[in-house]
Amino acid sequence: MSDVKLENTKAQMRKGILELCVLSIISKEASYPTDIINELKEAKLIVVEGTLYPLLNRLKDASLLEYNWRESKSGPPRKYYQITESGQDFLTSLKETWEDLNQAVNYSQSKIKQNEQNS
Amino acid sequence: MNKTVSINLGGYPFHINEDAFEYVHQYLESIRNHFSASDGCDEILYDIEVRMAELFQEHLKGRTIVSMKEVDEVVQVMGKPEDFGAEPLEQPSYQQNRDKSYKKGSIKTGKRLFRDPDDQKLAGVCSGISAYFGIDDPVWVRLIFVLFTFFGGFGVMTYLVLWFIVPEAVTSSDKLAMKGEPTTVENIAKKVEEEINELGDKISEWGKEFGSKKKRHR
């Protein structure tokens, strides 16, 4: 039972961070989903590839992303996603939250370590 | 020999074995059901089809026909729709409704009566029935049919009728449905592995036969 919960918690954590990472990858340059997948896989952030497509669709519906079609040499035209202005704002505030959370986690972890050393 | 189907997957053309086609079709339908309440359903599905097509091309490495092996590899990479993750931007009540509709329309999990071509004396009716009722050894069902034949002759009639109306379990998903195992990615993979092993055994048997014939000729 605890295994299931742990997996669930892990998945929830990954999900929030995934959104941040997808937005920051796309904010660098207009990206093709397959390239995004490759970057996410390198960072071991994505477990199954299917996760990305509903996420992109959701971010697009929230007007944080938009896409246009580009011709491809090896197949049908490809969708390239790029970040919108409101997406950029969203990303900036997500990054701030991430910094805060990161500090909070580091702080609480270092407290625990100190207590362990003192005792 | 295997029948193939030509398909257009996300704008890429493929030839695909019939059983593999059915698997892909069920997989895409399960995704469609999962996202059926979302406006972007068709778009998500199309994007996933495109990605699957790219993965097929990678996995085929120049071969021309997609088989269960490639489909299974690609489905493993793409993942099950349940693992795609919840949708944090949506209302929870909405999501519950969607989960329900997903369960209703998901891949068939119920048991179905089939004739079992892997364990047949005549047409696999009895082994299909015993699989359906979870009886380990079909000999008991066969015995009942034989007894019925002696007491009034209904056995033969019933058998012939069942032979006629019960379909044969042809594909891997049929065989899983026959035993009442849900058609999930893992189960199909397991089934395919079993079949591949069986085929391997057969081929090595043929190899031996062939080898012994050759020797005799010399």
Please characterize this protein's 3D structure:
Chain A has four helices and two strands; from the N terminus they run αααββα. With 119 residues, chain A is mainly α. Chain A has a single domain (2-118), classed as Arc Repressor Mutant, subunit A (Orthogonal Bundle), CATH 1.10.10. A two-stranded antiparallel sheet of chain A has the order 1-2. The radius of gyration of chain A is 18 Å and the shape is elongated. Chain A starts with a helix and ends with a helix. In chain B, a hairpin with a 2-residue loop joins strand 1 and strand 2 (12-17). Helices cover 62% and strands 6% of the residues of chain B. Chain B is mainly alpha-helical. Chain B has a three-stranded mixed sheet. Chain B folds into two domains: 4-105, no CATH class; 108-218, no CATH class. Classes of the chains: A mainly alpha (119), B mainly alpha (218).
Q: What is the number of E strands of chain A?
A: 2
Helices of chain B, by number, come to 9
The CATH superfamily of chain A is: Winged helix-like DNA-binding domain superfamily/Winged helix DNA-binding domain
Q: Largest beta sheet of chain A, briefly?
A: 2 strands, antiparallel
Q: Give the largest interface.
A: A-B, 25 and 28 residues
Order of strands side by side in the largest beta sheet of chain B?
1-2-3
Q: Which geometry of chain B do the CA atoms define? A: globular
